[in-house]
Design goal:
Number of helices: 7
Radius of gyration: 22 Å
Number of domains: 3
Shape: globular
């Protein structure tokens, strides 16, 4: 009969979230921490992100993705955290039993006292957005193209169209241009860019790459290899205006059409998911609906900054360590609700109204001259003015100990964005 491994904490995923969570749990005094990663190396997506812009919050300097990951990997190497690479988690039961597999050990049974989910996210495919056309070579997700170029040394094509203006798509527009490819245009369904303003400026404007807002691809041409795409403007309901349709020649279509949190094993564990974020419903310590299971990073919701991924992971790691030290009956939670011009808020629950916490949220639409507010018991407890808010740019509101107090017990906490224009 196989022996069951019983670590104090098992962290699933060794990207930026998993690394930070495992280290935070160990630093909080947990002796036996296991880090499980399905890939052959640590760092998740970061090793292929060779551009800078990582770490300004956590480390106070601009780092490349590999540099950011290496900071955590170096810390990890100085600990006794057990790392299992090339190990795939097949299932997590509601009783926190983990079933994993690798080539060396075969099936592995793990029964930790606490689990941190840190599986990250994946790219949407053409089939998930119902993109019509043939199935030729040359239709590539932007993240895969990034791996081809930065890790494998391969160019996916020479003349490209990019659908979607998420950050990966914007960064790849610049990257392929630097490698000598031509980007015929970036086409975005919405009436505003999907990525950070800095990436629009540095990756498109600085290289004279055209951005077409309120546009989409209506058909992929070519049977063996992409020969071009049809594009058209869209109306207010995002339906193509067929009288505006035109052909754009290219040999490659890069897709940057959104990211989805990886939560298949979360569902099997019985974790409640938020229909808006696609990730677990969590409290201020990143605890999920299943006691002893915590969640962090892009598996909760897709963050725009890796620094926020690491911060939520530290909260999750410390929360898991607290659970291992002394599991306590969880307090009845207070709901955190999105208010005016707020799409969603993470965390969605608060259990300890006397502690410090951070709320992360996105707006539904761009808006100028605003104030972001957090209200508890009808009273504003946090307020911050902003010249502009945009859906791609996550907003963080820090709540200090004592800000909530008894007001947090009176009813739901609400986050809203209000105009400051008179």
């Amino acid at each position: 009969m196989k022996k069951i491994r019983r670590p104090d904490i098992a962290v699933i995923g060794a990207g930026p979230a998993g690394l930070a969570a495992a280290l935070a749990a160990r630093e909080a005094g947990t002796r036996d921490v296991m880090l499980i990663e399905r890939d052959m190396e640590l760092g998740g997506i970061l090793p292929q992100c060779i551009h800078d812009g990582f770490g300004s919050i956590v480390f106070g300097e601009a780092l490349t993705g590999p540099q950011y990951a290496q900071r955590y990997i170096d810390k990890l190497s100085r600990t006794d955290i057990e790392v299992k690479l090339n190990t795939l988690v097949l299932e997590i039961s509601p009783k926190r039993r983990v079933t994993a597999v690798n080539a060396r050990e075969g099936i592995i049974d793990i029964q930790p006292k606490a689990i941190v989910l840190a599986m990250g996210c994946r790219e949407r495919t053409r089939h998930q957005i119902l993109l019509p056309g043939y199935r030729p070579a040359g239709v590539v997700n932007a993240g895969l193209a990034q791996r081809y170029i930065n890790i494998e040394g391969l160019m996916p094509g020479r003349k490209m169209v990019i659908l979607g203006s998420g950050d990966i798509g914007l960064i790849m527009a610049r990257r392929v241009t630097l490698e000598g490819a031509e980007v015929a245009g970036v086409f975005e369904l919405m009436d505003h860019p999907g990525g950070l303003t800095r990436n629009v400026v540095q990756c498109l404007n600085d290289f004279d790459i055209p951005l077409h807002l309120s546009h989409t691809v209506t058909f992929i041409h070519g049977k063996k290899r992409v020969e071009g795409v049809s594009v058209a403007e869209v109306d207010g309901e995002f339906k193509p205006k067929m009288d505006t349709e035109r052909f754009v020649g290219c040999d490659t279509l890069l897709l940057s059409v959104g990211l989805i949190p990886e939560n298949e094993i979360s569902k099997k564990a019985g974790v409640e998911l938020d229909p808006v974020t696609g990730g677990p419903v969590v409290d201020e310590r990143m605890g999920t609906s299943v006691p002893g299971i915590f969640s962090a990073g892009n598996v909760v919701n897709v963050f725009d900054l890796v620094d926020y991924v690491s911060r939520t992971a530290q909260d999750a790691g410390r929360g898991a360590a607290e659970h291992v030290r002394k599991p306590v009956r969880r307090k009845k939670p207070v709901r955190v609700l999105p208010g005016e011009n707020v799409k969603y808020v993470v965390p969605q629950l608060v259990r300890d109204t006397g502690g410090d916490m951070s709320l992360y949220f996105r707006v539904e639409r761009p808006q100028r001259s605003v104030a972001t507010q957090v209200l508890a018991g009808g009273e504003v407890i946090s307020r911050r003015k902003a010249k502009m808010v945009r859906p791609p740019e996550m907003i963080k509101a820090d709540i200090s100990p004592g800000d909530l107090g008894d007001r947090g017990k009176a009813g739901p906490i609400t986050v809203e964005v209000v105009s400051t224009e008179e």
